[in-house]
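Example (one chain per record):
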Amino acid sequence: MPPRLILALALSLALHGGVLLPDILKRPSVAPSPPVLQALLRLPPKPEAPLFDPLLKNTLDDEESPKTVNELPSPPSLKNQPPKLQPNIKRDAQVARKKLSEYVYYPAEASLRGIEGTVGLLIILSADGSVEDVQIFASSGYPILDNAAAKGVWAMQKLPGVKAREIPVSYTFRLVH
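Predicted structure:
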């Protein structure tokens, strides 16, 4: 090793030792205990104004429970059709409900407020099975749930194996307790 390098190393050690040695000597032998962490849980403040538009018409009375699938009215366009023009409508409704469950999400606001309900939808399909229109024939009583169900239908875009028809489907939003 060249003597200049040894000299530079010795000077570096002396300089750093002179700067750091007083700090090392001042430190206590036992490290101070870290401060105690505290966690406080607070409820969120109650909103002063509703987060969504109030209903123009209450479709559910306070005493009446949400309608079940069997109690939903028939969609208007399917009431007067003879049964022979509705082949496999139950199968198509099951296919639609299964695919719809992949695309509908429970709105976070509705979940936080404990809102539940069943939405009756009429899905109108074109000849290639793609969604042409969505109509709500039985409201859940909450626009936020109705809109979430309709958005889910539009998101699924197409039903495989189903051609040009109107399919009534009910979708239930239920919180798991």
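Caption: Strands lie at 117-125, 131-138, 166-173.
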